[in-house]
Amino acid sequence: MKRYAAACSLPVYQPETLKSDDVRSRLLATRADALIVAAYGLILPRAVLDAFPLGAVNIHASLLPRWRGAAPIQRAILAGDRETGISIMQMDEGLDTGPVLMQEMIPILPQDDAGTLHDKLAALGARMIVAALEGVAQRTLEGRIQPAQGVTYAPKIAKAEAVLDWHRSAEELERVVRAFRPVPGASTNLEGQPLKIWRARVHQGTAEPGTIRAAEGALIAGCGSGLLEIQELQRSGGRRLSAEEFLRGYRLPPGAKLA
C-alpha cells in the first residue's frame, strides 16, 4: 500500500500510536467519511472510532466469530478447517468483536498454504470492501451482531510453533508445513543440522517418530501416527531441493533421525 501510495503521490502517515491528540487531529483533517482497516495489529481507541461519520470498517480474514485476532489464516490451516473467508466488520473497541456487515466463504483446498490463501483472501476482501462501503454510505447495509457461540482466537504466531514435533500425527505436521509456508517455514534438525521442510505429503504406515529413510528417491519420516513424505527441503545456507535432488548430494546415514 505504501509503494502504491507513493506511486500515486498520495501522502503516507505512519504513527506509532493512535492515542495521541496530534494523530487524531491529523486523521480528522483528512475529512474522510470512513476509516478502512486491514491487517492492523492494534485495537483502535474510541476517539479514532468516533472520528469518521461512517465509522471504522475492518477487512478481516476469517469467518467471524471464528479466528478473531492476529493470525487467522495460519490458525485455520493448522486447525484443519475446510473453509475460511472474509468478514467486513464495523469496528468497536474489542478484538474483532464488532458487528459483521458482510461475509463470504471460500474453501481451503488441500494444496493451499498461508501464501496462496492470503492472496485469495486479499482479492476477495478488496472486492467486498467496495460493496460494503457503498452499502454503509447508502444506509442499505446493517451490521449483524456476532454470535456468542463459535468464538475462537488466532494469536500471533510464535517461532517455536514452526518447529516440527515428530511425535505428532503426520496430518498435523503436514498442516504445519502449509501453515508456515512461505514464512517462516517449518523447521527441524537432521543429525544436528537445521533443515527447512517446504512441502510434504501424508502416507499410511508406522515408523519410529523422527526416523527417516530413503525409498526410491523419496524421504519418508515416521510420526506419532502415519508417515510424512518430505517432498521439498532446504539445508541451512542452501537452496530448496526436491527430495530426489537432496539425496543425490547427501548420503543419509543408517538410522538417521529428525528432531
Properties at a glance:
single chain, 259 residues, alpha+beta, four-stranded mixed β-sheet, 7 helices, elongated
Structural class: alpha+beta
Q: What is the β-strand count?
A: 12
Task: Please report the distance between the alpha carbons of the first and last residues.
Answer: 40 Å
Helix segment tally:
7
Mean pLDDT: 95
**Low-confidence region ranges:** none
Rg value: 23 Å
As a percent range, the share of strand residues is 25-35%
Described by the principal axes of the CA atoms, the overall outline is: elongated
Major β-sheet annotation: 6 strands, antiparallel
Describe the overall structure.
With 259 residues, this protein is of the alpha+beta class. The chain is built from seven helices and twelve strands. The strands form three sheets. Strands 7, 8, 9, 10, 11 and 12 form a six-stranded antiparallel β-sheet that branches. It has a four-stranded mixed β-sheet with strand order 1-2-4-5. Strand 9 (212-215) and strand 10 (218-222) form a beta hairpin. Helix 4 (72-78) packs antiparallel against helix 6. It is elongated, with a radius of gyration of 23 Å. The model has no long low-confidence stretch (mean pLDDT 95).
